[in-house]
Structures are given as structure tokens and as C-alpha cells.
Amino acid sequence: MSGNLISHAEKAVIEKPRNLKTKKPPVKRLLYPGLIFVALVTQIPFIMTIYFSLHSWNVVRPDLGIHFVGLANYLHYFTQPQFYTVLKNTLILTFGALILCLVLGIIFALLMNRQFFAKGIVRTMFVSPFFVMPAVAGIVWKTMVVNPNYGFSAYFGKLTHSVPIDWLGQHPLFIVVLIVTWLWTPFFMLVLLAGLQSLPQDLLEAAEIDGANKGQQLLYIVLPHLLNYFEVVIMLGLIFILQVFGEIFVTTSGGPGYASTNLSYYTYREGFQNWEIGGASTIGVITVILTMIVMTFLFSFMRRRFKEELT
Amino acid sequence: MKGVSKIAIMFIFLFGVFLTACAPSADSSGEGKNQSDKGGSDTTLTIATVNNPDMKSMQDLTSEFTDETGIKVNYIVLPENELRKKVTEDVALGAGKFDIATIGTYDAPIWAKNKWLISLDDYFNKMSDKEKANYDLDDVFAPIKNALSYNKQLYALPFYGESSMLYYNKNILKASGVAMPLHPTWQQVADAAVKIKEKTGKTGIVLRGLPGWGEMMAPLDTVINAFGGKWYNENWKAQLTNPQTEQAVQFYVDLLHKAGEPGATSTGYTEALTLMSQGKAGMWYDATAGAGNLNDKENSNIVGKVGYAYAPTANKKNTGWLYAWSLGIEKSSKHKDAAFKFLTWATSKDYVKLVGDKKGWVVAPPGTRKSTYDNPDYKMAAPFADIVRNSLEHADYDHPTIDPVPYKGVQYVEMPEFSGLGTEVSQQIASAISGDTSVKKALDSSQKLADQSAKKGGYRK
After folding, report:
1. Taking the model in full, what pTM does it have?
2. Which pLDDT score, from 0 to 100, does residue B28 have?
3. Residues B313, B368 within the same domain
4. All residues at 6 or more sequence positions from B424 whose CB lies less than 8 Å from its CB, including other chains
5. Which of B166, B201, B197 is nearest to B181 (CA)?
6. What spatial distance separates the first Cα and last Cα of chain A, rounded to whole Å?
7. Cross-chain residue pair B263–A257, CB shorter than 8 Å
8. Residue B110, domain extent
């Protein structure tokens, strides 16, 4: 009897490993449909864009036809002075808005991280700019805020008896940076607020007991804790602000000249104003390459600088 | 049992998603029915149009058309710059979303050449004698018909036609002690504007500064023509840096700086009309189509105080421009017969009378038919009628400049690349208006662009 039991147990021991080996979950096979779908949907349009950028195609001149020109489109844009202005504008707009949003975002997040009367309403008001559509925000700013004939700035200008400044004509990029900051600060504020609220209070109390004042607490405990959140918010903010288009389209149309054109608006200008599909595709490809370079630099910098704090 | 119910729910969900994705769209089922139904009931025409006041009137009165013929009309309204782009995109890439496109005299010959519009001659020949007499194609102004034709065939019908003229606010001019002759020169206008600014502090003259080949470039081109400048010489070499062109552009920019409206680079036709009709400016040089709106009690504060003068001249007489917003039928339209019915309705004598009766004769569609200008009701309501009629009949569409040039068009250059080139050049000049650069530098950049366009388009051999 015991012999049978033992041999049964031995059998079970011998069989168990074999069962475990064959029962592995089919992870890779289940991932393939999703991977293939995403690859097709995102990469096919990009490959078509690269294909078009190698051709010369003017939509309003069907008599000229579509023909292969190799890298001539790229050469054409790199030798245009406007292209470098556009590049400079893109970098100024993106980093200007990003830095302003970060600073304002952390300030508002620190302010919102306490209890006070009507906190819910104030939070709703702070978050609402994020939900306004870029085109609507642009029109409101253009006709209500900065219009030199009818806007707020003209009203305050008249009160102080100064000539109303034509903001959109003299400082177009500055206004676009302001509009983008106004739209995106709530997003930065929310992410950083989430980070602040995940900070355990015991750490701050322990620091206080050890003699740290509020400023030192902020600098040595709160901000390092937030570094992960900074990384997330800078990455997302960078991707979205680099592509800003709607605000520019309804306010300045990229002008005067090229003073407020960024790469995405330049793509639109080439494609739908000059009707050069090849040219617009070229700018699109250059935008993607630029985005990848900027992001790589930014993250290697962050990794190196904050290696200890980031997990 | 648990596993089976989970799988069952998943399949039902997937099946539901599949059904939604495969449901036929509302348009396709409607269109299938319309193919066989040529009579017109249940046909819906899609028309792309500008948001000008005359088009808004047309939208309001479309119910009359639908009651008469049973054809419904779906309007897609866009601002001028965007409309041109959207319709060009639709027609050039063959999307076929619109049946009728609102196009201008600029677009009609280009689109006709590219075979994006259908010729209307066949449809006119098929009309009965009674219908032809009722429509009276000869009543339409000849220069406009000429501008809307290609290879002697008509491709669009004009909805309203315009030239350019000078408007002035009689009260403001009296307060500044300025008199305006009927045929002023640009120098007289500039002096008057400066005086108005000095004496009353108000804007002397409103001029478009919004970049766009159909926005700022339109009045600026007439000024270039007036001073003897031109875009290209007979060998298609760009002439934007030649002395007369530079003098003209410098004059325009200086006038805006000295006595123009603030925020000039954001001021297009709509904004300029608003400024003038609210009495914030002494003078306004722009399309004759604005006259109706300046006299409309609903929208204007200066009714009864408006003075009119011909487009200012300099070295050249007859500088008024020629333009007509017109309706054309896209080649890809599936309802061409219904579309032609709408075209002839919206451009007929009866329609002009309809607007006159329902909305007031002062806003009747101007500049298309001689009969409108012979109508006593219109002449009584529109004191500007004679100036408009004379400007239209004498517009120099075929010879816009003093020197001979290889192109046509008064306030634009009749070539497909101009929508891009004109806008780029106007952007450069907008930089000069806002003070970012000098007129000379702006014109140097523009010259390069114009030369590039001529070479790339194959005009310069």
C-alpha cells in the first residue's frame, strides 16, 4: 500500500515539471495582432510621406505631372533662409512655452496642494483653459484680448493714454507663446499636483523635526521627489507643443513674413497655399527627425544629471 | 460555465462593433436613390461658399428655391482664404464633396483648363427659348463673362461682381476741412488721410493689410498698376524691385504708417468693413460690394453719411479692379442638372428682384447685370450705382498695366501659382507694414520668389 502511494507521489513529482513547462502563457503570440495593427496604421502614412517628399507634385498644375526628384526638395529647403527662421521659431516657441508652463505649473500645484475655502471651484477654474480648443482660444485672444481697436489691451492702453500696441503685428511669436502657455499650464499643474499629493507627509515631518525650514524642505525633498513627474510632463508637453498649429492659424497665419511660422504651420503653408505636396512632405519628415533628436538629447541630459533620483 | 459566458459576451460585443463599422453611411443610401430620380425631389446639392453678406442673403432666400423645385441646398460656409483652399483641395484631389463651388474670376479659367469645371454652354443650348429669354445671358456684363471663360466657353455664372472704389465719411471729412473730388489721385487721398488724422485723431484711411493674395494683395496690386509698376515683364522676368513697383509699395506702407488703422496686418475685408461702418475711419478703399452694406441700416452706423469716389489713380487712369464671385459646377458632381437649375436661379433677374423686395434694394447683388442698373428701385436705393457700373464696364482686365505684360488680371496675376506667390509676397510686405523689415528688403525677397515661380511653372523659357 505505501509502496503504491510513494510511486504515485513520485509520478506526480515527475509529471508536475513537465506540465509546468508546457503551460507557459502565449504572451508573444497574443501581442502580435496589436503590434501589427499599430505598425501598419502609424508607419504606412509615414512611409508614404517619405515617398512623396522624393517627388515634385504641384496640385494646381496637373499639366506638369508628378516626377521623381530624389533629394532635390530637401536641398531646396535647406538653402532657403526662411527655413532657418522657421526652425528658430519652432525652438523658441516650444522651449519658451515649455519653461513657462513648468514654472507656472509648479507654482500653481504648490498653491493647490493645501486646503482653503472654495478649493473645488478654484481648481475647476484653473483647469478649464486646457479644455478650450486651440482655434477658439486663438480667436478669443485675437479679437478680445490683444486687438488694438477693440481689445482689453487697447482699453488699458487708452486708460494710460498710450498708443495701443499692435501685439500680433509686432510681437506675433510672443503672443503665440502666451496662448500656448495659457492652454497647457493646467495640464502641467495637474500632473505635478498628483506628484505632490503622492509625497508621504512623514518625510516632511521628519525633516521638520531635523530642523529643515520650508525652503529647504521644498528644495531637498519635494522637488527631487517630483523628478519622475517632471520627466513625464516634459516629454508629453514637448510632443504636443512642438506640433502647435491651431493657435497660429487663427491669429497670425504664420506672419508677418515668417515671424510666427513653426514647422507644422510651414508644412501647411507649403502644402495648402503653394500646393506643393512634395515640399510639404519634406517639411513633415524634417519635423519628425527634429523631434526625435530633441527628445533624445533632452532625456540623455535628464538621465545623466538626475541619475540617482530617477528610478 | 463561467468561461463560456465570458466568451459569449465577448463575441456579442465584437459582433456589435463589426455591425457598426459595416453600417452604410447616410449619404451613400441617399445618393443611390438620387441617381435614378432626375426630377429633383430629394436631391441635395452641396455648395461651398464665402461668408460675405451677399452669400448670407442667398442662404436665407434658398427656401424659395427649394419650394419651387424641391431641390435642397446644403451650405458649407468658410472665410475667403480657407474657402479657396478647401475647394481647390476638393477639386484637385478629386474628392467630389461639393456640387457647386463659389469661385472667382481668378479660379475660373485655371479650373476650366485643368478640367475641374464643366462648360455651361451645352446647358445653355439645351434651354428652351422661353427659359433663355427669361435668363437673358446678354444682360450679364461682358467683361465679367470674358473673365469667367476659357477657350471662348463659359464656365461659371457671376453671383455678384465688383470693382474697387473709395468710400468716405462725409461728417469726418467736413470736420477735418477736406474735400474729395469724384476722380481723386492717390496723392490727394494720402494728403486727405494725413489731415483727417491730424485734425480729428481718427484713422485717416482703412486699407487692407491682412496677408493673402485675395486680401492685402488686391488693393495693393491696383496701387502698383496705378504707379506704373508690374509683376513681370514680357519675358517673364520679375519686376517687383523696379522703381515704379517699389514706389507704389512704399506709398502704400507709408500711408498705413502715417494715417492707417492700427493692427493693419490683421485687417482684411470683413474687419475693414466693420471699422468703416462703425464710423471709426475717414476713408476706405476697397471693393464696390461694400457699398450695399455701408448703407444697410441693420449693420452700419453711417447710413446717409457715405460719400463715393472712383478708385484713385496716379500715372494710370482706370485702376479699378474686376472680380466676380461666381458659381461653377464641379466635374465630379453627381447632380449636374439640379446644380445648373440652382446656378440659373441664383444669378437670374428674378433673384435680384427677390433680394430687392425681401431685403432691400440697397443690398441687391451688384455688378452682374445691366438690368439691375436700369432698375429705378435700385438706382433710388443705391446712390453709388453709376460709379460701380462705370468702373465695371471699363475695368482693364486684359491690359492692367501701363507697360505691356504677359499676364491678365487687374488685382492679381492670372496664373495658378499666384495663390501661393501672391500670399508669400503679401506676407513679406506685411513684415514691412509691421516694421520688422524695410520695403526694399521685403521686395528683394519677393523678387526671388516671383522669379522662382516663373521658372518652376515653365513660363520663362
Report:
1. 0.77
2. 39
3. no
4. A273, A274, B446, B449
5. B166
6. 58
7. no
8. 37-155+323-381
Do B434 and A256 count as a contact with CB atoms less than 8 A apart?
yes
| pLDDT, chain A, mean | 86
CB neighbours of B199 closer than 8 A, spacing ≥ 6?
Answer: B175, B176, B177
Half-sphere exposure of B322 (CA within 13 A, CB side): 30
Flag if B427 and A254 touch (Cβ within 8 Å).
Answer: yes
Q: What is the pLDDT of residue B383?
A: 87
- Chain A positions in Cβ-Cβ contact with residue B110 (cut-off 8 Å): 60
A254, closest residue in chain B (CA to CA): B427
CB contacts under 8 A, A 168-187 vs B, are 168-170
Exposure pattern of A105-130 as b/e (b: 16+ CB <10 Å)? Answer: bbebbeebeeeeeeeeeebeebbebe
**CATH number for the domain including B185?**
3.40.190.10
Cβ atoms B274, B268 nearer than 8 A: no
Residue B269 near residue B208 (C-beta atoms within 8 A): yes
Residue B128 near residue B305, CB atoms below 8 Å:
no
Q: Does A275 touch chain B (CB under 8 A)?
A: yes
Contacts with B431 from chain A: Cβ below 8 Å: 255-257, 259
Residue B269 DSSP SS3: helix
Between helix B349-359 and helix B53-69 the angle, nearest 10°, is: 110
* A·B CB contacts under 8 A: 99
Nearest CA in chain B to A60: B416
| Maximum Cα–Cα distance across chain A | 110
Q: Give the gap in angstroms from C-alpha A244 to the nearest C-alpha of chain B.
A: 19
Level-2 CATH architecture, domain A74-305:
Orthogonal Bundle (1.10)
Residue B204 is predicted with a pLDDT of 93
CA distance A256 to chain B (A): 5
Tell me which chain A residue has its CA closest to the CA of residue B92: A59
H or E stretch covering B205: strand B203-206
Q: How far is CA B98 from CA B58, B63, B80, in A?
A: 17, 19, 16
Beta-bridged to residue A59, according to DSSP, are none
For A42-99, the pLDDT digits (tens) are 999 999 999 999 998 888 888 788 888 889 899 999 998 889 999 999 999 999 999 9
Structural domain contains residue B116: yes
A:79-118 residues touching chain B, CB 8 A cutoff: none
The verdict on B314 and B183 lying in the same domain is yes
Q: Please state the ipTM of this predicted complex.
A: 0.70
In angstroms, the CA B351 to CA B58 distance is 9
- Tell me the mean pLDDT in the region A237-253: 89
Please tell me whether residues B286 and B412 are part of one structural domain.
Answer: yes
Q: Which of B40, B97, B48 is nearest to B69 (CA)?
A: B40
Å from A238 to nearest chain B CA? 28
Tell me the mean pLDDT per 10 residues along chain B, length 461: 69 69 45 39 84 85 89 88 80 82 89 89 88 88 89 91 93 92 94 93 92 91 94 93 94 94 87 91 92 86 92 90 92 88 90 89 87 88 89 88 91 90 92 90 93 88 72
**In B, what residues contact A, Cβ < 8 A?**
81, 85, 88-89, 92-93, 110, 114, 210-212, 261-266, 275, 280, 416-417, 419-421, 423-424, 427-428, 430-431, 433-437, 442, 456-458
Question: What is the pLDDT, as a whole number, of residue B272?
Answer: 92
- Give, rounded to a whole angstrom, the gap between the first and last alpha carbons of chain B: 81
- Distance of alpha carbon A183 from alpha carbon A178, whole angstroms: 9
CB contact (8 A) between residue B263 and residue A142: no
Q: Work out the pLDDT band at A21, boundaries 50, 70, 90.
A: low
- How many residues does the structure list for chain A? 311
User: Does residue B333 share a domain with residue B311?
Assistant: no
Question: Between chains, do B265 and A273 touch, taking CB under 8 Å as contact?
Answer: no
